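It is time I had a proper look at our fold encoding. Can you supply me with one protein entry, sequence and fold together? It will help me judge whether the discrete encoding reads sensibly. Leave the record below and I will have a look:
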Amino acid sequence: LGLRVGELATRGAQIHSKGNKELLQLDAETGNLVLKEKPDREVLCGVTDSCVLHFQLILKNPVQFFQTDLQITDINDHSPEFPHREMLLKITESAQPGTVFPLKAAQDSDIGSNAVQNYTVSPNLHFHVVTQSRTDGSKYPELVLDRALDREEQPELTLTLTAVDGGSPPRSGTTTVRIEVMDINDNAPQFVQSLYEVQVSENSPLNALIVTVSARDLDAGIHGNVAYSLFQGGGVSQPFVIDEVTGEIRLKRVLDFEATTYYNMEIVATDSGGFSGKCSVLVAVVDK
């Protein structure tokens, strides 16, 4: 400033900050500018790259003004934070390897190299993460499918996504990525037994329960619902009826051992996508 030692004190030197919190204090005897408290660059300047505090040094007798700038540099004092503790992705099991799924980025109040620089994901068989850059230099993650999903094998996956900044030492933040594998109709119904054998008395009453067949479909929801139907077999009119929902086969007509000693039926279970499975039912009529 071109002033002699002690002149600051004799001329009543004062510091005046423009619109900023009074962070500075002047020791007029020594001429030292002292911080009254630790400055927080993120509070003072947000995410702007340059953080400069403007203040004036005011002298009296005669009056003089000196415009002065104080630049505050960033240190890595913040860790990356994701907006939510958990992200939910719903991915159909028909998704092809190479499919990209964008993820929400972590926020870091630090700037430059102290901001988020890289993303990683916990080891798993199906996904890896790629770190992409926006035009402003900020980084965001994308999840890439490496291996096809199978809902029947694994209906849900839980991954840990980590954001790492470029500080020394680096800071990091994590979030959970929960993946629900959405079903497609890729399984046909299968009967618990391929052959059902039963004996029925010829004097059984109408609507008597003969046997209950059961088929399972590994698909979920409507894809896993099956409808049962009875195929006519051996050219013989069947005296039976099947409930398409429960698989119960009941007697709809009186049996006669002397006319027919056994019936061989084929039962079909069909799902909503048209896939089907079959089983055989052999009914032996017992003479009374």
In short: The domain at 7-71 is CATH 2.60.40.60 (Immunoglobulin-like). The CA atoms of residues 1 and 32 lie 13 Å apart. The helical segments are 7-10, 41-45. The chain has a mean pLDDT of 87.
